[in-house]
Amino acid sequence: MEKKDNERSISSFNNELKLKGFNAFQIEDDANGVRNYSRKDFYKICLTTGESIIHYADRSYVMKGTILFFANPNVPYSWETISRSYVGYACLFSEDFYKPSDRTESLLHSPLFKVGGTPIFHISEEKREFLNGIFRNMITEQSTNYAFKDDLIRNYINLVIHEALKLQPAEDFDQVKNAAHRITNVFLELLERQFPIEGKDRPLQLRTAQDYASNLNLHVNYLNRAVKETTGKSTTTHISERIASEAKALLLHTDWNVADIAYALGFDYPTYFNNFFKRITGTNPMSLRPAEV
């Protein structure tokens, strides 16, 4: 009975989130802090006090005390709570909800949300009390009938973002050392935005270096040189490794058959996908599941 009530609560939470594009809530335990939602659609800001390990992209952070965490919807992360006591607040918001703000471009593309940026900040006790008040205001405001409450909530989100930006070292604001780094960062962000694949009817659109170059209005040779110079890997290698990583996730965590996965990842025939997967991973797609579902 408790499991069904929890499932209904999660379903209600997700439906409300999709409808309004925003939700703020208090965190009183780990399960509440890591609610299920479509990470591809929503940014997340958490203010938490406790001890935890945050795995963000390819990095892990061991955090103690109060932290402020910013999650980009296109960067995978997971959260392990270590301490028994874990409290705080969180808010989720879509880009469409935030768009009416004139400064959407600058804030959502700040170092807080960028791939390779700084998503986690230690917060003092004095600052924690101040930020707690902002989150409490968001929670209260979302339930009112005030005609301009969305504008007010966006102002609260902006205030939290600016408080974090003030903690960001000034030299880190311009992380672009040269044109090659800038192009590479943009390419990697665009690559990550293609995932996760959430439906068999929405196949991967960008699959080659030329696809990405065209999307970024660059010559493919220029993109390849920049990416190779900055990362030591070719553009094609980055794309192939990311597609293979997504393929593993789909094989392990969905009941899609191999043909469906191949189509979703942009392969015309399952044979092409099988050959690709074996070339990149050294193993057969079917080795990741006991039997075709």
From TrEMBL:
PANTHER family: ARAC-FAMILY TRANSCRIPTIONAL REGULATOR (PTHR43280), TRANSCRIPTIONAL REGULATORY PROTEIN (PTHR43280:SF32). This is Helix-turn-helix domain-containing protein. InterPro entries: Homeodomain-like_sf, HTH-like, HTH_AraC. Signal peptide: none annotated. It holds the Pfam family HTH_18. Residues 181-291 form the HTH araC/xylS-type domain. The keyword Transcription regulation applies. GO terms for molecular function: DNA-binding transcription factor activity; sequence-specific DNA binding. PROSITE patterns: HTH_ARAC_FAMILY_2. Keywords: DNA-binding, Transcription, Transcription regulation.
